[in-house]
Write a structure and sequence with these properties.
Length: 232
C-alpha cells in the first residue's frame, strides 16, 4: 500500500480492543475436526468462529445438479441459531460463485461437492472467516483448487479505515468492504460492500484487504503444513 492509502489506515486512535487500525485479530484453526465429513476445519478470528464441513465429490442424485462437464457446488450457510434468512442466503450465493472459479470442477463431472458452514460465534468479519475456513476444509478434503483463496474485511469509519472489524465496529461503520483473492497473482474472486464509497476510498479498502490477505496466506500455509506433518 502506498503512503496515501497507509495514511488513511493509520489516521485513527487505537481501537476499543487495543488493536491498531491495520492490525488483524488473532487467528486459530484446526483441520480434520469432523470424522464423518470428507474434509473439515474450524477457524476463529478472535470471537468470530466458524466450523466448515466438506462432503464429496459424490454422485449427483438430482438431475438439476448433474452437469456432464463439471461438478455442482452446494453451499449451506447456517447462523448461530434459528433459520437462515436473507443475509445467509446472500452469503451462500457469494461463496458458491467464488468457489466455482477456484475449485477444479471439470475434474469431477456429474458429481456434487457440498460445503456446510456453521457459524459458531459472530463478532464481525464473518464472511471473510467463512471463506478462509472453507478453504482450509477443502484442502483437508483433498479437493483440487487452482489456488488458495484468501479473504479479509475492511471497515470505513469517520476516523479512517480499519481491518478485520468487530461486530460493534461494523455496526457503527459508514461502509464495510470484504475482498477475496487468489493466492496466485492476487486475482480478485470476491467483492462485497455495504454502504457507499467514493473511488479513492474503495481502492484504499481493496489494497488494505490485499495486504491483510498476504498475512493470512502465511498463516494458512503454516496450518496446512502442520496438518500434513501430523498425517505423515
Amino acid at each position: 500500500i502506498n503512503a496515501e492509502y497507509m495514511g488513511l489506515l493509520l489516521n485513527r486512535m487505537p481501537r476499543e480492543d487495543g488493536r491498531q487500525p491495520a492490525q488483524l485479530r488473532g487467528i486459530t484453526s484446526e483441520q480434520g475436526v469432523l470424522n464423518r465429513a470428507d474434509g473439515s476445519a474450524r477457524l476463529s478470528q478472535a470471537q468470530s468462529s466458524v466450523l466448515v464441513a466438506v462432503y464429496g465429490p459424490s454422485e449427483a442424485k438430482q438431475i438439476r445438479k448433474e452437469h456432464l462437464d463439471r461438478a455442482h457446488i452446494d453451499v449451506v450457510f447456517k447462523p448461530m441459531s434459528g433459520q437462515p434468512d436473507r443475509q445467509e442466503r446472500e452469503y451462500e450465493a457469494i461463496i458458491q460463485r467464488t468457489l466455482q472459479t477456484a475449485i477444479m470442477v471439470k475434474s469431477h463431472p456429474r458429481t456434487v461437492i457440498t460445503i456446510v458452514i456453521q457459524v459458531l460465534n459472530d463478532d464481525g468479519s464473518i464472511l471473510s472467516a467463512a471463506l478462509n475456513g472453507t478453504c482450509l476444509a477443502l484442502l483437508d478434503a483433498g479437493i483440487e483448487m487452482d489456488s488458495t483463496l484468501l479473504c479479509s474485511s475492511c471497515a470505513v469509519t469517520e476516523g479512517g479505515l480499519i481491518l478485520d472489524p468487530t461486530a460493534a465496529e461494523e455496526k457503527s461503520a459508514l461502509s464495510v468492504v470484504t475482498m477475496g483473492y487468489r493466492s496466485v497473482e492476487s486475482g480478485v474472486v470476491l467483492s462485497h460492500m455495504t454502504g457507499f464509497l467514493d473511488d479513492v476510498t474503495l481502492f484504499a479498502c481493496v489494497e488494505a484487504c490485499r495486504s491483510a490477505c498476504l498475512q493470512l496466506l502465511a498463516f494458512l500455509r503454516s496450518v496446512t503444513n502442520k496438518r500434513y506433518e501430523s498425517i505423515e
